[in-house]
Write a structure and sequence with these properties.
Largest sheet: 2 strands, antiparallel
CATH topology: ABC transporter involved in vitamin B12 uptake, BtuC
CATH class: Mainly Alpha
Order of helices and strands: HHHHEEHHHHHHHHH
Number of strands: 2
Shape: globular
Distance between the termini: 39 Å
Number of domains: 1
Helix content: 55-70%
Structural class: mainly alpha
Length: 315
């Protein structure tokens, strides 16, 4: 039991930090531009595929640097030549644009790399067990993923709170016209933030690709959860996104490892109606409902705290 708790905690924190890497950029983009960027997870997928291709040519470590830069440049171009033009037509047009962009990116990825999973391997230097928990070897690469995620979180906080660029970005979130009157190019700030946000998603893709499955539907698997993180954490709140990511990561990881059901909990004390038409529900295990738990959390947050955990305005 103790081994299950320790391993599930480690895996939950790791999954949560990967979610944060993707959700951090989306949090700032969402709060600054007011754009529900449905294509954000597609840049996570692009990061994984770019990382795979570049690692085949020059190795994993150059890929970890080059792939996010490429994805960030594409993201900046999307904002400058796509979203900025669509913006004048309202939020519905923006939503449809990013929705279509997500499908376009997925189709392009399938045309170039196909639909089958790729053999994106862990670099040899990190392909060993970091430590042993009870009888389970914990891979060094997963610890590397965790360290990268924590380092980026700390770096983002320092940039946003301690640098002039961070102050300009924060001011542009709420008072873009005032920032423009002070002589700053607000459009360029928006493009920079959008590019950095997509680059962060690509970093998550590069480091997650060897550990998870790199395939053309990976954006669709994590994309919806990102919006749960943004809303649960609170719009524009980086600490909120961090807490929500960890909470959802731990919640889903522990749920997957639990096989208990109402019938097992109550046993012989189960009511007579439990064996009727509701027997299927009565026998559903926690692991079976694990995929919907983040969305149940989202519903509860919207009911009892619509502004999110650390948000300052209602969603």
């Amino acid at each position: 039991m103790l081994e299950l708790i320790v391993i599930s905690t480690l895996n939950g924190v790791l999954f949560g930090m990967l979610l944060f890497l993707m959700a951090s950029g989306l949090t700032v983009i969402f709060s600054m531009l007011g754009v529900l960027n449905f294509a954000h997870a597609s840049f996570y997928m692009l990061g994984a595929f770019f990382g795979y291709q570049i690692s085949r040519w020059v190795g994993f470590w150059p890929a970890l640097l080059i792939a996010p830069i490429l994805a960030g440049a594409i993201g900046a171009a999307v904002e400058r030549y796509g979203l900025r033009r669509v913006h004048r037509n309202g939020h519905v047009a923006e939503l449809l644009f990013t929705f279509g962009l997500a499908f376009a990116i997925e189709e392009i990825v399938q045309i170039i790399w196909g639909k089958s999973p790729l053999d994106f391997r862990v670099p040899d230097i990190l392909d060993f067990p970091a430590f042993t928990v009870f009888s389970t070897n914990y891979p060094a690469y997963k610890m590397f993923m965790l360290l990268v995620s924590v380092a980026i979180f700390v770096g983002l906080l320092l940039v946003l709170k301690r640098t002039r660029i961070g102050l300009i970005v924060q001011a542009a979130l709420t008072h873009p016209h005032m920032v423009g009157h002070l002589g700053h190019n607000v459009g360029r700030v928006f493009m920079l933030v959008f590019g950095v946000g997509t680059a962060l998603a690509a970093v998550a893709g590069v480091i997650a690709g060897p550990a998870l499955v790199t395939q053309s539907n990976m954006a669709g698997l994590l994309g919806p959860i990102l919006f749960v993180v943004v809303v649960v954490g609170g719009l524009g709140s980086l600490p909120g996104a961090f807490i929500a990511s960890l909470l959802i990561g731990l919640l889903q990881t522990f749920a997957v490892s639990m096989n208990g059901s109402l019938s097992e909990i109550f046993g012989p004390l189960s009511p007579a109606w439990a064996s009727t038409w509701v027997s299927d529900i009565w026998n559903v295990t926690v692991a079976q409902i694990a995929p919907i738990m983040p969305y149940l959390l989202l519903v509860l947050i919207l009911i009892f705290r619509p502004m999110g955990l650390l948000g300052t305005r209602e969603t």
